[in-house]
Amino acid sequence: MKKLVLSLIGIFTIGLLSAQTYPFVSISQITFVDSLTLANCSDSSAYLGDTVRTVGIVVTDGNLSEVASGSITGGSRPFITLIDTANNGSPGPWKSIVVMGVIAGTSNPEPDIENAVAGDILEITGIIAQFNGLIQFQPLNSTATNVLGFTSAPTFTTISAGEIQDNQRRNILTTGEKYEGAYVELRNMTVTSVSVFSGGSRCEFTVQDAAGNQVLVADRFLPMRVNGQTTVNPNSPDSIGRLIIPSIGTIYNHIRGVIFQDENGCAGGGAFAGGYEINPVYASDFDKAAPPPVIENIVRNPLVPNASQTVSITADITDADGVVSSATLFYSSDQTAATNLFSSVTMTNTTGDEYTATIPAFALDTIVRYYIEATDDSSQTTSSNIEYYTVRANGLSIVDLQLVPSFATNDASAYAGDTVTVTGIVTASYQTGDLGYLYIQEPNATEYAGIYVNGGPLSIFTLSRGDEVTVTGVVQENFGFTRINADSVTATTNTGTIIPVTLDPSDPTLFGSNNAGLEKYESMLLRYENPSLTGQVFVVDTTLTFAEYTVGSGFGASVSARVLAGRQVNGQAQGSADVSYINDTAAWGANLNVTPIQVRTNMSMDYLDGILYYAFGNYKLTPRNNADFANLIVSIEEIQTSTIATSIYPNPTSDRLNIQIDETYKFSQLNIQLFDLNGRLVVDTRTANNLTNINLSGLGKGVYILRITDNNELINTSKLILH
Question: Which helix (H) or strand (E) holds 27?
């Protein structure tokens, strides 16, 4: 990007002279929220949804973003941050904003954003948006960005962790919002937890200050790419990551980065959202103090002990600037005990960097927690994450994989990364007319009992619902969704029946703001049913994106549960191609195996079955086929019609149906089709007449869908009742 030194006074003159259709609004005006509004749990910009012009100085280089996105051309979602030009771009409250470098309404990155460097002065016309509490500025079109000049790169401002986050890592709107989008510095922070995910390619970790206020160090920029892992941004200056994953106890003299928000405090977000996150942008944003010991490669043997077996815990423990002076294993069978009450045993340095200790045997079904603490010759101490296992007589169960105990700090499986073997009953399969994904469930368990089986041998395609199978594979957390990447899937000679767990889709404790109560039902076969004996489940909201809609107990229910149906994208979207009832027949109906029928709020059913799936922060029921909709009823009104006048009578009818098309409408041949609510075609006839009589005497009573087309152009879709 061309760099031309200009005074900021001159820049403002240029900006004013080049006034466009859209009004000029400063960054400070866009981001400011008054204290009363923040205290009332609202942090939205006064300009939310508006298209405006603004001018700012680039804080972060545009080619450093490391956010993978399959929906963006090039596979990477670019970001930069701007600071208000006031006072020559000096840092301060309400002066910064995040620019999402994708042209509004498209999947195309904005080249001027990707090529921006710190110090560039940009005029941008764009739309003010908000995602999970984060105010974002999105370029309006490919010509929305103008380079006005170049000045010194903006610097950081030092803040305290307690201004943005509390000791439970919840965002504090009243004092933190003013730093959203700002390049800041946190001092004297200690790593308290580390999360490595996406197959080891991504890492985030939590740090806290001396008062215990916690901040997530997030991975939206290049410095957080794990060492040796290929970068996702095709414009990145580095082809691989360089981050050495820190261990718990690592101390940073400072961490710098841009503040994003993934709301989790006040009224927003899920239990495991990031809050106000700091995102390091440059390698120099980390200043690590003298390193503490590093604890790696913790191994448990046996992985699942029985009541007579002791458990050997081994780990590699090293110290980069000295020697390890001690290592201790702490453990407890009391799920409520504080860590300072754990039993301890000194670990033995067996060979090289390997240390080992033994946990005694415990009774069946006991959950045992444990962690390792190591100290070096500089009195620096490191603690590992707390891990746990369950004592079982017959090996691991699906419940063990999915269980989230009360003491857990996240919902990840305790066996993530381990190779395991479990047995369960197939609840969804690859058979024709089924979900198209393999799920198994532990019989006789009503919580934490289901799991998705990813991949496996070709034999998975022969499995049917009710088959008992044994699966061996690696447990993986895929963006919060637990699954087994199968190495082998073997059918036993046994079969079983899984009864759906019944939930009220309008239960506010389950389907509230963060759906936290649904984790225990992930991947299980569920039934959404109105708890009233005579009540119906209604379609509530059909305006959701990505093929989702909601259902609730009663017409217009205030609380409703998400349903995903019809969406198929490279075999990954989890929406069945054998479900007719979808929210957008134009977007998602093309690849269905059944006739698409657009859901409307006047549709109701006795109940709805399906598998509970999790993606993009939401739990959603995935019906397997049309049979999972029990006695679906469509309103008497026409489902869909065109401008061509069409009369269908009598309706309801018993045996005969007349269809009359406007006589002024000219056509060569109409195609008239009748479908039952399972999507089966039961009548298929063609006519060249404006008035057609159809004999329906061979059909059973019930609800049908009538579809009339002319040369594949839809003329009318209506509900028909036979009595």
Answer: helix 27-31
